[in-house]
Amino acid sequence: MAEEVSLSVRGLGEIFPKEDQPIGADIRERRLERVAADLREARFARQSIGEIAFRYGFSNMQNFLTLFRTHFERSPRDFRRSR
Q1: Please, how many CA atoms are within 13 Å of residue 32, restricted to the half-sphere of its CB?
Q2: Radius of gyration, alpha carbons of the chain
Q3: Full 3-state SS string of 12-73
Q4: 7 or 65: whose pLDDT is higher?
Q5: How far is the C-alpha of 41 from the C-alpha of 36, rounded, in Å?
Q6: Distance, first Cα to last Cα, the chain
Q7: pLDDT band at 11, cuts 50/70/90?
Q8: Taking the model in full, what pTM does it have?
Q9: How crowded is the C-beta side of 63, counted as CA atoms within 13 Å?
């Protein structure tokens, strides 16, 4: 991410010094929120949960499922069904 915004890793870290969570956790949370938004969208109903997760950088499904369940307190499948 630092490279994308033309900053050093240290410089990027200094932007978020007062945050309660590290920048990596913030990025992961934003990615989970984007997956959740796509799971709610009817236009993505034919895409598998794995395809959607992969699109947002989750390459390990077991890790993704654990993170999703922890963050949303339900599985991605249950989340999708409740839209």
Answers
A1: 22
A2: 15
A3: HHHHCCCCCCCHHHHHHHHHHHHHHHHHHCHHHCCCCHHHHHHHCCCCCHHHHHHHHHHHHC
A4: 65
A5: 9
A6: 31
A7: confident
A8: 0.78
A9: 7
